[in-house]
Design brief:
Blueprint lengths: L1 H16 L2 E2 L2 E2 L9 H5 L5 E2 L9 E2 L17 E4 L8 E8 L4 E4 L4 E6 L9 E6 L2 E2 L3 E5 L4 E3 L1 E5 L5 E5 L9 H19 L1
Antiparallel strand pairs: 1-2, 3-4, 5-6, 5-11, 6-7, 7-10, 8-9, 11-12, 13-14
């Protein structure tokens, strides 16, 4: 017990008497809480995937979905890449990486193995994804590509329109046509 008190007293005297370390003056340590540390939001988590598959995620591990200027069923023109100048219809969109699939554009060759014995393998053509920044909405009537704008109609409906031509893209006829085509494809798949 006596050795313990002697050790404590020597430590306190050492810490009080030695204000320098190898000729350099030491400043007393003070820790101040930073105001940003208490109110900062948690940073976004990036899922560790392959370099070409990296997706930004929310803290609950769901992918961040990006807003896109195109929707399924829109007629678009390719403005960059090896398919530049071609037009087609958007068949599928991927919001997690802002890519779209355009019908009969950017075809890739895929080699399929045979699934059953005796069945030959095959080579098929599949549409590849194109980044949404490389496509621009296209008017079939005026044959012009344009940026998209948003406006609210008299009935309070918010629609997209082509800035160059003023043509409204989102109308009831287009939605009915899309729903009918979706039903046809679902019936074909189930049959």
């Amino acid at each position: 017990m006596a050795a313990m008190t002697a050790l404590q007293s020597s430590m306190t005297s050492l810490s009080l008497s030695s204000n320098s370390f190898l000729g350099q003056r030491l400043s007393p340590l003070t820790i101040y809480p930073l105001p940003g540390m208490l109110t900062s939001k948690p940073c976004q988590i990036v899922v560790k995937l392959k370099q070409w598959e990296r997706k930004e995620c929310k803290p609950n591990s769901l992918p961040i979905l990006h807003k896109m200027h195109v929707k399924v069923g829109d007629t678009v023109k390719i403005i960059s890449g090896h398919e530049k100048g071609k037009t087609g219809e958007v068949t599928k969109i991927f919001k997690h990486n802002s890519t779209v699939i355009v019908k009969d554009i950017n075809l890739k060759t895929k080699h399929m193995k045979s699934r059953e014995e005796g069945e030959p393998g095959q080579i098929i053509k599949v549409e590849g994804a194109i980044h949404s920044s490389n496509v621009m909405l296209y008017s079939k009537e005026k044959n012009v590509a344009s940026r998209v704008g948003h406006k609210i109609l008299e009935n309070g409906q918010r629609v997209r329109y082509l800035i160059k031509t003023g043509e409204i893209i989102d109308n009831a006829e287009n939605w009915k046509k899309l729903k009918e085509e979706k039903k046809k494809t679902e019936v074909a798949v189930s049959a």
